[in-house]
Design brief:
This protein is α+β, with helices and mostly antiparallel strands. 42% of the residues lie in helices and 22% in strands. The chain is built from twelve helices and ten strands. Strands 2-3-1-4-5 form a five-stranded mixed sheet. Strands 6, 7, 8, 9 and 10 form a five-stranded antiparallel sheet that branches. Helix 8 packs across helix 9 and helix 10 runs antiparallel to helix 11. The longest helix is centred in the middle third of the chain and has 21 residues. 37% of the residues are buried. The model has no long low-confidence stretch (mean pLDDT 85).
């Protein structure tokens, strides 16, 4: 086991702490790949030799340092490759490392559904299940030619390799992805479009507040709507100008939602992601003489001061005018 997949238990308002936590991992290895908003991959091949400890022992040290220095716990998956480390992470819990030794890869994969394999979507999984290949063990035992006839030559070859534990992925060092995200789950599958819009308003206000707190603006907004049947629809929109203005984010979110044309859709959750973040000081803005827009910006400034003084719950998201 040489690869760790770490998920830090970061509250949504502390995503800005991820670079510091990545720095903690870089004390052990320079080969660290950020997985925003709260995770990372780390290749410990060199660290195992240098520290004379295996990956699981190093994972324990990383967890202790994260708690001691940042007060943040983490869940960790360990495996011989990035794919297996990611899959192991799904079985891990805070304070626990789920490790997949190389000798146990086949047993680890055998009973898992084919949909658990990265890169296998709902449509591909449905086709495989129709032919009785509903687990990775059965997919691994199937002839390569059979898989290629069912899902195509390239995907069939990748599926055959991954189901047999062949992990060709690499950890690619990078910076923190320039994005922020927030999600609004419903307590029950929600049919009411007004409640959908209120969730969008709340999410857009939270993103705007967090962007302004970081002195950032975003160029793209992405909407993800998840439904009761576990499917999802994702739409992205490039904004007219980079912004952290909650009203502009709300208008873009509403526009994408209306374009979906949902008819009595049973919605499980709604998520927004602000992407393409840049420093606010480098952004240019179109001058506006709209008194309503200026009023909203003054309200935002007052709300931001209240949050800075009394905490993030001083202003409840969704209570400002859209």
């Amino acid at each position: 086991m040489t690869i760790l997949c770490v998920r830090f238990q970061l509250p949504p308002t502390q995503e800005a702490a991820l670079p510091e936590l990545l720095g903690l991992l870089e004390e052990f290895t320079p080969v660290v790949e950020a997985l925003p908003p709260d995770g990372a991959l780390a290749d410990l091949r060199g660290a195992e030799r240098y520290f004379k400890r295996d990956a699981v022992e190093l994972a324990s040290v990383i967890r202790v340092r994260s708690l001691a220095l940042h007060g943040i716990d983490c869940a960790i998956g360990a495996g011989p490759g990035p794919m297996l480390a990611r899959m192991a992470l799904k079985d891990a819990r805070p304070g626990l490392t789920c490790a997949v030794p190389e000798a146990m890869v086949a047993d680890f994969l055998a009973d898992r559904p084919v949909a658990a394999l990265p890169g296998v979507g709902a449509a591909t999984a449905r086709v495989l299940c129709e032919y009785g290949l509903d687990t990775l063990g059965r997919a691994a035992a199937a002839p390569l030619s059979t898989l290629q006839r069912l899902v195509g030559a390239k995907l069939g070859r990748e599926l055959h390799e991954k189901a047999n534990g062949v992990d060709r992925g690499r950890v690619v060092p990078n910076g923190v992805s320039r994005s922020l995200a927030t999600e609004r789950p419903f307590t029950r599958d929600e049919l009411d479009p007004d409640r959908h819009r209120r969730a969008l308003l709340s999410a857009a206000e939270e993103l705007g507040s967090r962007l302004r707190a970081l002195d950032k603006v975003c160029r793209t907004l992405t909407l993800t709507v998840r439904y009761a049947d576990r499917t999802a629809t994702t739409r992205s929109r490039t904004l007219g100008e980079p912004t952290a203005h909650s009203a502009a984010l709300t208008r873009a979110a509403y526009g994408m939602y209306e374009a979906l044309g949902l008819q009595r859709a049973r919605v499980r959750s709604i998520a927004l992601r602000a992407e393409g973040l840049d420093p606010a000081e480098q952004a240019s803005h179109q001058l506006t003489f709209d008194p309503t827009d200026e009023k909203l910006r003054r309200i935002e400034e007052a709300a931001d001061r209240a949050r800075a003084r009394f905490g993030p719950l001083a202003v409840v998201p969704g209570t400002l005018a859209a």
